[in-house]
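FORM 7B - TANDEM STRUCTURE REPORT

SECTION 1: FIRST PROTEIN
SEQUENCE AND TOKENS:
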Amino acid sequence: MILNRFPPVTLGDPEEPGKPPLPNQPGEPGEPTLPDRAPPDPVA
């Protein structure tokens, strides 16, 4: 990916061994439990 060439653009990409995996990273088991989707559920 081209984003892999830019460290500031890669927000903890799985292809980046030097960056920790983010909980809200796409493809991660924590994707459905994103902070953006969690609040709307209890509020609604």
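SECTION 2: SECOND PROTEIN
SEQUENCE AND TOKENS:
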Amino acid sequence: MRRKSKRSLTVKQRKKQVVKARDKNSKKEQVSLNSPEDLKNDCSEVTNTNPNKRKVAPRSSDQFKVGPDFDDTEVHRKCFISSTKEHIVPVISARIDRGFDLINNEWVGYKRNYFTLVSTFEFLDQPGDLCSNTKFHICDDEGKEVNIECFAIRLVSECCENDVGVVLVQHTPKRDRGPQYLPPVFVSVPGVLPEHEVIKSSANIRNGVKMSQLDRLFYLEENKLKQAKEGSILKGYPKGKVCTVAKYERMQFSTTLNYRKPALLNRRFVLRVELLAVLADEKYSVLASSETPPLIVRGRSPSNY
């Protein structure tokens, strides 16, 4: 009897072993059905279900994406070459390199995120060194000629619904609660807009030699300042660097906007680049402008850094 019970016990154990073996084989078959690419896709699907899970570092190159196109240049006041009285037409080139995404056919940015914008200008069908050879003037409302001291580029913003100006601020390279500044007004001459990849790759350069090389893309070389003809507008420019390309980086919309109010949720804003004619006695006149399509600015970013 003992032998029979022992034999029957052994049979039960064998049955259990067979069942376990079948389970292992079935698991192996299930794993083999999923290729590494399938597993990668599965993981990405799980990850993408929570947009807040992946945070993009503020200095990451992933932050840089080309934003909305600026509209055609709108001329507000005529500009003339003083020596020939020829009417010249300014053309503004501007591009957003960081800070806005196209979501459901709307350009969306976030208050806490920085945006980067570059801009320059040229005169239609005129050489790039025109400022080195001549002077310019505008005519006031009475038709009197007013000399232009220099050209400058300015960045402004306003609400689309009521045309009220919106304050923009620029941060220091350190991302903290340190000093904030209004967007600078760049004393400028005609230039060429660098490619988006140049702006993207130059964002985190801190090496002195490389920074000086980059300056050639954004500022007029000193020897060209010295070579400007006597009596040209460039000879009368203020001392200091003269921009060929105005670069606005680490820009934010002011915190004075209350994004929690329901009335502001659907409001649109525009960014506008203006070309200024700087006149005597610290006066100026807006020669031309170019602006973005309506932008939505939300209070909190999905990355939430």
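SECTION 3: OBSERVATIONS ON SECOND PROTEIN
The radius of gyration is 31 Å.
The chain has two domains: 2-46, 61-298.

SECTION 4: SIGNATURE
Preparer initials: ____
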